[in-house]
Amino acid sequence: MEQLAPRQSNKLQVQANYNKLSDHIRRLTPQGVQCSVFCGGVNCKYENPENWKADSIAIQGIYSHWVTDDILAMARPSTLSIIQKNVIQQFESLGIKSIINLQCPKEHASCGQPLNESGFSYDPNMFMENNNIFQDNEKLQSPTSPTNDTYSAPSSPNPSESGDISDTFSEFSTLDGDDMGEELLLHNSCFKKLEIKRNFLQDQPAEDFNTQDATSLVDALLVDYHELGVPYRRAIRQYQNQINNSQLGWLRLSRETNLKILAALLYEWLENLKTPILTLHSFENIVILYKQTDACFRKIPVEDAYLIEYMLRFLSKVQPISKDDQEKMLKRFIAALAKQSIVINDKAIPSEKGFKKLSDGTFQCTMIFFQSLFDLIDNHHNQKSDLPNIEDNEDEDELYEEAYAVKTDEVV
Predict the structure, then answer these.
(1) Which of 309, 312, 355, 349 is nearest to 330 (CA)?
(2) Three-class SS state of 15
(3) Residue 216 DSSP symbol
(4) Angle (CA) 83 85 90, round 5°
């Protein structure tokens, strides 16, 4: 039998030998060709121990490292390497009693030796028949998981693909009776992130909601974006860039209190959608069915219906508000949803967008439909009926049937 590498606790952190760009390209590449294109297929270096020096082969014949005194990280073994390199006997001599499988079935199918019928590179029964405890990764945190053992954790051919090896095994720290020291945990980046998240959730103060005057809100929602001054336009452009490119924009948006900026961002989003919420087909149905609110509403695609319902529900909460202001806001919502201009206060809004003016006949039918739908939604929510939560209901059509006595039909 070949000489075994001495058992050490070097806590080696193995880094991937490619940068973030190439890693991103790998992740975007279809899984079926990843091995042959990037890993070398049967020549994958992580499947061939001849590619590594002795300090990278804690288990002879397999790319492997001791990451703690009791955890060995290793590339996946193959049936051939287990037999040729006496891997099971090596495990016994090193006191390895449990094996945690981090592979997914049929993962890296082209790397190294052909996969076993089990979908893995080796047959788990080979270890279990020799009194090794074998576990899949989803069972790691089970209360019945064995403790106080020395672990071997085979992963995909390249262990660094899942991140730092020390991070990969941080899950063991949650097992009862685990001997991983507090000092190791304190230096583990995954553990730090979990602690930060837990502290953040515990220390998060209650949100302080600012109340706004209804008149100010109406004025903000009826402002024409192109009439805003340069500072407003600059702020809105900055928001758009930040929201599209980083999380900072969303954080700023959650704290924004300027109603004109918030309204402008809403309209800019709606009016720059590739396809308007209210399409030509929607208006055809509205013109025909505008007096039959339920039948007309069920013709609208469910994702668009949710948005319309949300906006009208928001409008119903703006109180106190005059009937005239309510109609103006309905007009402004319709203009944004349809990406067409509508006359409000003797002026076509939105201006300078190049939108066509909604024809008078279509506009009248749409206003009647939206007003009826608004009244229906307002009355429904005022009754405070017990409705199922959208997040708890897997069938959205069923929810609509319960909430509004309508169901979503395919538009013909």
Answers:
(1) 312
(2) coil
(3) H
(4) 105
28 and 177 co-located in one domain: yes
The confidence band for 388, taking pLDDT boundaries of 50, 70 and 90, is very low
Tokens of 290: 């505008």
Q: Which domain holds residue 332?
A: 274-412
- How many whole angstroms separate alpha carbon 56 and alpha carbon 157? 14
How much of the chain exceeds pLDDT 90, in percent? Answer: 10
* DSSP string of 166-178, one letter each residue: HHHTGGGGGSTT-
Residue 59 DSSP symbol: B
CATH value at residue 95: 3.90.190
Would residue 15 count as lying in a domain?
no
How far from chain centre, in Å, is Cα 93?
Answer: 44
Residue 348 main-chain phi, psi, to 5 deg? -75, 120
Query: Residue 173: its pLDDT value, please?
Result: 39
Residues 332 and 377 in one domain: yes
Q: Where on the phi/psi map is residue 273: left (φ > 0), alpha (ψ -120 to 50), or beta?
A: beta
Least-confidence region, from 26-40, 87-101, 315-329, 343-357: 26-40
CA distances from 189 to 165, 168, 169 (A): 11, 10, 11
Pair 126, 268 in one domain: no
Mean per-residue pLDDT for 315-333? 89
Q: Is 41 left (phi over 0), alpha (psi -120 to 50) or beta?
A: left
Pick the range with the lowest mean pLDDT from 118-122, 178-182, 266-270, 387-391. Answer: 387-391
**Interval 108-119 mean pLDDT:** 78
205 inside domain: no
pLDDT tens digits, residue range 327-384?
A: 999 999 999 999 998 998 888 888 877 888 888 899 999 999 999 999 888 887 776 5
Instruction: Tell me the two tokens of residue 106.
Output: 């049929």
What SS3 class is residue 317? coil
**Last residue of one domain, picked from the residues 272, 304, 321:** 272
